[in-house]
Every structure is written in C-alpha cells, then in structure tokens.
Amino acid sequence: MIDDLQEEYDPQERVNEFYKLESEFWKHKRLEQMSKAEWEALCDGCGKCCLNKIEIKGKVYFTNAYCRFLDCKSCLCKIYDHRFEIVKDCRDINLEAVREKPRWLPKTCAYWLLDNGYDLPSWHPLITKQAASVKEAQMSLSGRNLINETKVKDYENYIVDWQDL
Ligand code: SF4
Ligand code: SF4
Q: CA nearest 112: which of 150, 165, 50?
C-alpha cells in the first residue's frame, strides 16, 4: 500500500514554474503575506529538515539518520502528498514551525533566514533557477554520510555537528 504511494520527483520540475511568481517577492513580503505558491517556492529542497533530531536539555541535535521516505538522491519526500497521514511526526513547515524554539530547522532554511532578517543565499533555486545549485553548493543532503532511520536504534550515537545545521 505505502509502496504504491511512493514516487520519484524531479527537483527541477517545480523550479521551472518559478517564472510564474512575482519577481523577488521574498524581498518585500513577510512570510505571513506570501501565497501558497510563494511559500512552497521558498523551500530550497535541501532535505535537512527530514533528518531525525533529538532534544537534550533544551537543545536540539541533528542526527544523520534520515526519514525512511526521503529520496536521498533528489532530497525530496517520496510521499509528499501523503506525508502527514503516513508519518506521525512529519512536521508541516508553517510559521509556527519556523518560529519554534529551540530552533530545529537548519540555519540555511530559507524560511528561518527570511524570518530572521537574512536574505536568501546565492545558491537558492529562486535565484539560480536551478534546483541543482543547492547540491553544487554542498548545502543539500546529497553525498553526505547518512543512515536510514530504520537501521538506527539509539539516535544519540548518530548526532552530527555539520556547519550548516
Ligand atoms: S530545511 Fe527548509 S529549505 Fe530545507 S527542505 Fe526543509 S523546509 Fe525546505
Ligand atoms: S515524510 Fe516528512 S520527514 Fe519524511 S521525508 Fe517526507 S517530508 Fe521528510
């Protein structure tokens, strides 16, 4: 059943639709003012929010254990339209999630950056018009030492301190 729902997505497909969006909308709109399409376009597709995290004494630690439904090649979710039905702790990336403390989104996440007064990085697909620029800048999970969460027993043994988390 779940196997039937899994799909492979081409990250460039959604980037090809960016021409429909208002030019540089993120420079003059707050997150609250963005349309659904604008909000979705802000996601750079890095995949880092799909790593498992643990909270110890009020601090969030990322592990290199990825959600079983992440496609590590494209860094996209294989069950995107069904993710909340299938994975109970999959979080909707909404304003509340972006502002939650302690921070659990990576510090390169476009939502967190804009909400904290930073601009988009030069490698963001909204600027480059290329989904691959995230991987080329080594900001996605692609090529990293990762482990499928199904093989992990104790997450504390998989904590990572990558600079971009
Ligand atoms: S961390 Fe942010 S930019 Fe990266 S995939 Fe998750 S929501 Fe998108
Ligand atoms: S189900 Fe959620 S956590 Fe898992 S890959 Fe999809 S979006 Fe990421």
A: 165
- CB of residue 11 inside a 6 A radius of ligand 1: no
Residues 6+ apart with CB under 8 A from 55: 61, 102
List C-alpha distances in Å: 77 to 1, 51, 69: 17, 12, 6
C-alpha–C-alpha distance, residues 44 and 67, integer Å:
18
Q: In terms of Cα–Cα distance, which of 70, 55, 57 is closest to 159?
A: 55
What integer pLDDT is reported at residue 147 of this predicted model? 98
* 14 closest CA partner among 57, 85, 101, 75: 75
Q: For 113, phi and psi rounded to 5 degrees? A: -60, -50
Whole-structure pTM value: 0.95
CB of 70 closer than 6 A to ligand 2?
A: yes
